Amino acid sequence: MNYNAVINEASKILKDYSIKSPKLDSEIILANVLKLSREQLLLNLNEKISSKDFKFFIKSIQRRRKKEPVAYIIGHKEFWKEKFKVNSNVLIPRPDTEIIVEEVLKNIPLKSSKNILDIGTGSGCIILSILGDRIKCYANALDVSIKALKVAKYNAKIQQLENRIRFINSNIDKFCNGKYDIIISNPPYIKSLNIKKLDDDVRLYEPKLALDGGNDGFSQIREVIKKSSILIKKKGKLFLEIGFDQVNETKKLLLDNKFYVNKIVKDLGKKNRCIISTKI
Ligand code: GLN
Asked: Residue 186 gets which letter from DSSP?
């Protein structure tokens, strides 16, 4: 069978199982199996697939058919300027999260050296993207999950940033080291009850720990804000990713903890997503 026929067969299967982008997913998965870029694959559609590659491809398509996200199947996800290793121990980096990166970068002049704290680093996507673009900055990155930190450390190493970042296995309420110019966090912010309403891809495969914000969705946001107000320098900036309907409550929490709210930034779907504040 040639690549074109393989893609068509797989797309049909995925379509039957109501996967939203069957052709694209098949192409990405096949390209990964063949160790080609998607562009290279599409330029070589008449090539024949080897039986070894075909077997592995079918296994991967069966995983996708059961709604496992493509990023976990191929083991990486593009975010900002890099390819990040991911597995089921970390949240898959979202395009919407690039907004935090963009906003933080606007706040750090190219040559300036800032001490940054990332709370709940996951794959490390946010903080590593920032360090990659601001070569004088350095950071501490926390996560409660040792398995997540293993992924983040790998990403730091691949991107040659490991000298400017320290990974710490800790909960935010137990952490009390240092004073930071900038604190960033994309904490779990989904109400426990709403987890079951998420897409199967997310609900069945992504780590609950990275999603579940407790009964009201604010348990982690609250902790992060409270602790940040102690760990941040005066005039330091806090960048938080939150749910679109969490702005008012988050503003209140920030004011209660002596932060001045600078701005709220919308995501690609025009929903409130990022809240930036300054410690007074
Ligand atoms: N900081 C990581 C991200 O933005 C992980 C966030 C999380 O696990 N809640 O993807």
From this structure: -
Mutation pick for ligand 1 pocket among 87, 118, 125, 129 (CB with most ligand atoms within 8 Å): 125
Residue of 76, 82, 89, 91 with the most ligand 1 atoms within 8 Å of its CB, for mutation: 91
Give the closest residue (by CA) to ligand 1 atom 2. 122
**Which residue, judged by its Cα, is nearest atom 4 of ligand 1?**
186
Nearest CA to ligand 1 atom 1: 121
Ligand 1, CB within 6 Å, residue ranges:
91, 93, 97, 120-123, 125-126, 186-188, 210
Q: What pLDDT is recorded for position 200?
A: 96
Q: What average pLDDT values come out for the chain (280 residues) when binned by 10 residues?
A: 97 97 98 97 98 98 98 98 98 97 98 98 98 98 98 98 98 94 98 97 97 98 98 98 97 98 96 97
The protein residue whose alpha carbon is closest to atom 10 in ligand 1 is 93
* Tokens (6 digits) for 117: 């704290």
On whether the CB atoms of residues 134 and 126 are closer than 8 A, the answer is no
